[in-house]
């Protein structure tokens, strides 16, 4: 199902890290009819409100980037909210996209959907082949449910609903709240604050040994647009770089970028999370898309944005809706 430059495209979660990047990508590509609603304007957990929005706006295309997100601490502290709110958002938007004959929907999940000890790099086929990582189980289960809903609606009704699973993302409009942020923005915030305060050391969680993959968010958005324009399969698609780094080496990179000269102290009493999580991106590469921004450049861009928007960044919450 082809999308047109004149289509009305609703980006759910347009003010968050993911959604704002997708809006930028769509606009750069000449899609001029992009709509979005903030959480205050439209609570996606409320079925009647979502239905009224679709009735009024009648979008042609939907990008479902809205979610309640957070790092290990937030996921472990609020698992019920992560499960309930994400499933509410997904059910309401996907059902309305079907009821109002949206011609294409892209659902964004996360590579945390895969088993904790999945084969590395992780192929799309690894889904549901083993136990999940306990520290983000609630979020992962919700995202698996959304992915499966898209497959089932496509299978039963022929709806053009597709799914992608981005790896760890970072960049402009990230969440820098230390209680709810992911590892890379949390490091930027901690090192920046320590530099400003003249602190002698920064404490980071875990051992630093886990391996992670990171993708600059504007690259992710370009991949999403590529899939909207060129993909209509039932199988979800991984989005990533296919490259990884230890958390310890990431900390050294962020420390250098920020210019912090103090010590790093690793609190090994705190959890590491999944030991390794690297995407197999061969399916996306075969379709014709590759990332452009390497990690060192991306961290520099992210830190520059943080410094230019530090007051706003510190108010960012973990609900990109």
Derived structural class? alpha/beta
Q: Helix and strand string, N-terminal first?
A: EHEHEEHHEHEEHEEEHEEHEEHHHE
The proportion of residues in beta strands is 15-25%
Shape: globular
Count every beta strand, where a strand is a DSSP E run of 2 or more residues: 15
Q: Report the C-alpha radius of gyration, rounded.
A: 19 Å
* Uncertain stretches of 5 or more adjacent residues: 316-321
User: What is the terminal-to-terminal distance?
Assistant: 27 Å
What percentage of residues falls in helices of 4 or more residues? 40-55%
**Biggest sheet character:** 6 strands, parallel
Question: Can you describe this structure in just a few lines?
Answer:
The chain is an alpha/beta fold.
Jot down its keywords.
alpha/beta; 6-stranded parallel sheet; 3-stranded mixed sheet; 16% strand; globular; disordered C terminus
Write up what this structure looks like.
It contains 11 helices and 15 strands. With 321 residues, the protein is α/β, with parallel strands linked by helices. Helix 8 crosses helix 10. It is globular and about 60 Å long. The C terminus is likely disordered.
Question: Secondary structure elements and their pairing?
Answer:
Layout: E1 9-12, H1 17-28, E2 34-35, H2 47-57, E3 61-64, E4 67-68, H3 72-77, H4 79-99, E5 104-108, H5 137-157, E6 161-166, E7 168-170, H6 183-197, E8 201-205, E9 211-212, E10 214-216, H7 217-230, E11 237-239, E12 245-246, H8 247-258, E13 263-267, E14 276-277, H9 282-287, H10 295-308, H11 310-315, E15 319-320
Parallel strand pairs: 1-2, 1-3, 3-5, 5-6, 6-11, 7-10, 8-13, 9-14
Antiparallel strand pairs: 4-15, 9-12
């Amino acid at each position: 199902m082809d999308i047109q430059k004149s289509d009305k495209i609703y980006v759910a979660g347009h003010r968050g890290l993911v959604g704002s990047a997708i809006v930028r990508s769509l606009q750069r590509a000449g899609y001029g009819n992009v709509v979005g609603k903030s959480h205050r304007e439209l609570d996606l957990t409320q079925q009647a409100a979502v239905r009224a929005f679709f009735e009024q706006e009648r979008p042609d295309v939907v990008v479902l980037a809205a979610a309640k997100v957070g790092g290990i601490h937030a996921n472990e502290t609020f698992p019920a909210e992560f499960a309930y709110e994400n499933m509410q958002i997904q059910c309401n938007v996907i059902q309305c996209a079907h009821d109002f004959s949206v011609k294409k929907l892209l659902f964004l999940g996360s590579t945390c959907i895969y088993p904790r000890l999945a084969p590395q790099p992780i192929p799309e086929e690894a889904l549901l082949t083993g136990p999940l990582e306990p520290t983000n189980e609630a979020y992962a289960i919700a995202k698996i449910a959304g992915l499966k809903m898209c497959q089932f609606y496509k299978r039963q009704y022929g709806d053009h609903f597709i799914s992608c699973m981005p790896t760890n993302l970072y960049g402009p409009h990230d969440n820098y709240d230390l209680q709810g942020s992911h590892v890379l923005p949390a490091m930027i915030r901690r090192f920046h604050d320590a530099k400003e305060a003249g602190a002698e050391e920064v404490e980071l969680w875990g051992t630093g040994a886990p391996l992670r993959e990171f993708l600059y968010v504007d690259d992710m958005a370009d991949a999403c647009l590529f899939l909207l324009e060129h993909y209509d399969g039932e199988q979800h698609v991984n989005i990533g770089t296919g490259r990884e780094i230890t958390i310890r080496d990431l900390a050294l990179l962020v420390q250098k970028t920020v210019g912090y000269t103090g010590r790093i102290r690793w609190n090994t009493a705190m959890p590491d999370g999944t030991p390794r999580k690297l995407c197999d991106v061969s399916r996306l590469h075969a379709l014709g898309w590759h990332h452009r921004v390497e990690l060192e450049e991306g961290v520099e861009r992210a830190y520059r944005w943080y410094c230019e928007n530090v007051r706003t960044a510190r108010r960012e919450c973990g609900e990109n809706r």
